[in-house]
Design brief:
66% helix; two-stranded antiparallel ribbon; 8% strand; mainly alpha
Length: 188
């Protein structure tokens, strides 16, 4: 049977992949950035929901003082993540940009804390039946890796449909222009 640490680390890998994909979208035009933001946040919210509603509700720590300090800390971090997401949404809506680097830093720090301190503690303290139930429930809330690739945009030159991450940006023209491979090759 897989451990909570293994299953949630796999989810974290998907989230980091989505964060990196979202970072590639930052310089795209406003409408595309908004779609990418919505897709990314949906996947991140599923992950946080899984932690808060599936894992935290089943955790009854052996050391109540230590255990009950950990959960509020994680909830505060989740609130900080949600706050940063709201700020990014507001920024995208008004200016078509966002402070992605700061958000990524917060997420990586949070991920590392969970993988080093939280999940191993859960694997150690929870009984086998509870762990199995949690792992099964986590499997029910599926994250979609590379979901940003499903967002369709058009080539800036020929209007051919492209996936948001499959087009090419020309260094001289900037990131606001996205080209298919044929049109990219024609640019001088």
């Amino acid at each position: 049977m897989k451990t909570i640490s293994e299953v949630m680390a796999r989810d974290h890998d998907k989230i980091v992949g989505l964060i990196n994909d979202f970072g590639k979208c930052i310089e795209l035009e406003k409408q595309t950035l908004k779609k990418a933001y919505q897709t990314f946040t949906w996947e991140l919210e599923k992950h946080i929901f899984t932690e808060e509603k599936v894992i935290f509700t089943k955790y009854e720590p052996e050391d109540e003082r230590e255990g009950y300090e950990m959960i509020p800390q994680l909830m505060q971090e989740h609130n900080k993540i949600y706050k940063k997401l709201r700020e990014m949404k507001k920024s995208i809506k008004s200016r078509g940009t966002c402070d992605f680097k700061e958000f990524k830093k917060i997420m990586i720090k949070h991920k590392d804390f969970e993988e080093k301190s939280v999940y191993p503690k859960l694997d150690q303290e929870l009984d086998e039946t509870t762990k199995k139930m949690i792992v099964n429930r986590i499997g029910e809330v599926k994250l979609t890796p590379n979901s940003l690739k499903n967002i369709k945009v058009k080539c800036s030159e020929c209007d051919k449909k492209l996936g948001i991450l499959s087009g090419y940006h020309h260094s001289k023209l900037g990131k606001k222009w996205l080209f298919c491979s044929e049109c990219y090759d024609k640019i001088e």
